[in-house]
Amino acid sequence: GQKRCLTIARVFYEGIAHLNLARDTRQPKWRLMGENAVIKIAHLERTMSKWNLEHKSKLLQAELHYLDGRIESAADAYKASIKSARERKFINDEALACELYGIFCVENHMANEGSKQLHMALEKY
Question: How remote is the C-alpha of 22 from its chain's centroid?
Fold first, then answer.
């Protein structure tokens, strides 16, 4: 019910925050907390609802790949998250995925694609 939805939202958004903190600070505690969120959301995706959680799982995976320096895998996961959210009409989550992918692109010397993604995010928000 409602409690489960709130738990999913908390795990997802905290996971995004933890993985970003891990990338910024290189502190192992943030990485561990982020990895736990990746695992929890992936488990819920498999056991509850691929329809509702696939895009969230892909976005967390993208952030973990980025943290690990797996640039190509990260880009693929960001794109998969955007596609999944768009197909399922999760507009706010699509905007977040575009925003994070845009930041990723800018930080990895793909400014044109980054700018495009950030503009798409703004339109979705």
Answer: 14
